Amino acid sequence: MGEKEDQARSLDLEAHRKYLQRYALFHLRDPALAEDAVQDTLVAAVAQRDGFQGRSQLRTWLTAILKHKIIDLVRSRGRGLPANTLSLDAGDDSTGS
Predict the structure, then answer these.
(1) What gap in Å lies between CA 79 and CA 48, rounded to an integer?
(2) What whole-number distance in Å separates Cα of residue 89 and Cα of residue 9?
(3) Mean pLDDT in the chain?
(4) Which of 42, 63, 68, 94 is most buried (most C-beta within 10 Å)?
(5) 97 by DSSP, 3-state: which?
(6) How many CB atoms are located within 10 Å of the residue 87 CB?
(7) Do 73 and 28 contact (CB within 8 A), yes or no?
(8) How far apart are CA 27 and CA 12, in angstroms?
(9) Residue pair 69/42 in contact by the 8 Å Cβ criterion
(10) 44-69, pLDDT tens digit by residue?
């Protein structure tokens, strides 16, 4: 992949950052944890970019990665997170956008 294609793909990722932050904040209720989850998601998306085959929208793929990052955070921190973090499901779009 060329440099211009990499830049374009990174811009696509950044275009979804605000949505991802709202999604993470809704579920984690902690701005710092939400930002960490989003950053981890974007890093994972770049590392796994070849895994995105375009059969779904980029936002859907990014949300799935973020959902797993949030679940990992909940598991690693135990019961210290709000109950709504435990109700994540595949069709959840709780941010209203």
Answers:
(1) 30
(2) 27
(3) 80
(4) 63
(5) coil
(6) 10
(7) yes
(8) 23
(9) no
(10) 998 988 888 888 899 999 999 999 99
